[in-house]
Each structure stands twice: as C-alpha cells, then as structure tokens.
Task: inverse folding
C-alpha cells in the first residue's frame, strides 16, 4: 500500500552583495524571500521542506573574514530559527533549516536544525566533513567539524536525516544514515559549475542505491558578488532508492521543487538488493585504522602473472 509523503526543496539566489548592503540587511532579505517560498510550499501541501546550505545569506566562505561571525545563531533559540519554528507550526510542515551555529564564543559549526510539523525542535545535524578548497571554499576558517554523530529524526511524516554539501563525497556517513533508519536524506549544498557539477547527479544517486533511501539534493543558484568563485548551478532534485531523479529544478532561478515520495519503494528496493544483509563490517577495519604513517597497512598478497 503506498505511503506517500509530499516533499519540497528550495533553491535561491542571494543577489545582495556585502559591498552594498549590511550583513543584517542581507540576512533579512534572504529570510523574507524564503518565507514567501515556504508559504508557496504550504499552498502546494508540502509536508517536509528543506532549505539550502547557510540559507539566509551568500556563501560567505568565498572569503576569509571574521565579519561573517555576525550571522551566527544559537541552536535552538536563535532569532531566525524561532521564525522558522513558528512557520513549521503554522503550516504543519517539517522544516530542515541550515544555519551558521555558535555553540560558545569562538566555536562555530555548519549546522541544520530540524523542526517537526507541530513546531517542536527535534535536533540538529552538524556538518562533519569541512573542505578547504581553492578557489573560494575556505570553510575550515569558519567551521569546526561536526561532533554530534549521524542522527535520524522521527518526524510526523517520515524518518529524516541531513548530510550537508561536502559530506556527500563521503559514502561512510551516507551508509550510517541508512543504518540509523533514514528514509529521506536532505543534502543542502552550495556548489559551483566547473568544480563539482559533473558529480552532482552521480554521487547522491549512488548513495540512494547503496542505502535504499530517497535523497533531496539542494543547491543555490547564480553568481554571488563580490567574489568570483563561479556560478551556483542549482539543479536541485529528488532521487528515489533506485537512483532515478524524479523531480529537478532549473540551473538559474529561484525555485521550489515538489515531489511525492512513496516510502513503500524503500521496502521494495531493499527486498531486491540486500546490501544491508550482505555487508561485511568485520572486514572494513582498514577504513578507520591508522598507524604512525597515517595510512592503514594493505596486504596485497602474492600477485602472479596469471592474476
């Protein structure tokens, strides 16, 4: 029997440059834009909605400047999160809300808070894998690696998890989310053409197949000044457990993408592909085992010409 959940993701462009606008002004404009799109999602009866990485501003990691600490908020209780919490309750909608989190003075995380459809704060996911990639992805300047594990949130409509942007390049965490019971994994991102676009529709469908769950991949759009790190190419999408993209946004405009996900597909796929049954975790020690050299020993056996 179908178990349908209507989900949505929002991709947007931050067209306000910090050269011309205060950070507070940019933040308010971006929140207001998202509030309008969240209202549109409610009109379309979306039950679970995910926002893009660091949704209330530009992707500021394009520079290394501590002025951006001004955007940090406590989780829970930050002013933006309180606004989103009220919207979750108002619309009866689960919200995944990525923000710049401050735990204490000088300790910051790239984090997504999750609110249930009655407005209850369910918890947060902190991005584990922090890139420092040229040009313009200087995240180690801003974020401490996540330390809160790989939680799965039992919402009113589905078991939801979050994996943020650069995390998607690491299959280990994606597998843990599946083992922890995730049915839908949201990946809020900020990624540009020429760097990762060729991977955008490869890696996450592969995670969906390997773990038998749905993925909601979210990317922002457009060029963000004054930086010149490239174009955020959008193309946000939903992918089913068979690895098929079932709904996708354009590459160049603000957009709400909506898809009806039949969670019964998870059982059907896992009944065919028994990847969880056939795992061999007792053989995977080399993934985490290190020696003084920093590398796991590899026994290559005794290869012969016949091999």
Result:
């Amino acid at each position: 029997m179908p178990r349908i959940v209507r989900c949505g993701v929002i991709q947007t462009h931050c067209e306000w440059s910090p050269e011309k606008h205060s950070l507070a002004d940019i933040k308010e404009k971006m929140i207001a834009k998202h509030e309008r799109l969240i209202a549109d999602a409610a009109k379309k009866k979306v039950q679970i909605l995910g926002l893009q990485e660091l949704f209330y501003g530009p992707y500021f990691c394009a520079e290394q400047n501590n002025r951006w600490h001004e955007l940090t908020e406590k989780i829970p209780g930050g002013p933006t999160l309180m606004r989103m919490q009220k919207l979750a309750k108002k619309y009866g909608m689960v919200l995944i809300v990525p923000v710049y989190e401050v735990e204490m003075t000088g300790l910051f995380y790239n984090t997504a808070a999750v609110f249930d459809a009655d407005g209850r704060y369910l918890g947060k996911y902190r991005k584990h894998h922090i890139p420092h990639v040229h040009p313009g992805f200087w995240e180690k300047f801003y974020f401490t690696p996540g330390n809160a594990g790989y939680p799965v949130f039992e919402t009113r409509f589905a078991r939801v998890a979050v994996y943020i942007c650069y995390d998607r390049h690491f299959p280990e965490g994606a597998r843990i989310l599946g083992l922890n019971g995730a049915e839908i994994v949201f990946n809020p991102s900020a990624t540009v053409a020429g760097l990762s676009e060729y991977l955008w529709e490869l890696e996450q469908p592969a995670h969906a197949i390997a773990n038998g769950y749905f993925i909601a991949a979210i990317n922002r759009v457009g060029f963000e000044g004054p930086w010149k790190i490239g174009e955020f190419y959008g193309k946000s999408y939903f992918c089913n457990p068979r690895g098929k993209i079932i709904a996708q946004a354009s590459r160049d405009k603000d957009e709400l993408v909506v898809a009806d996900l039949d969670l019964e597909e998870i059982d059907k796929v896992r009944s065919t592909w028994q990847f969880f049954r056939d795992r061999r975790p007792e053989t995977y020690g080399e993934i985490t085992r290190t020696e003084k050299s920093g590398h796991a020993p590899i026994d290559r056996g005794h290869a012969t010409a016949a091999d």
The helical segments are 23-43, 79-91, 171-179, 197-200, 203-211, 264-272.
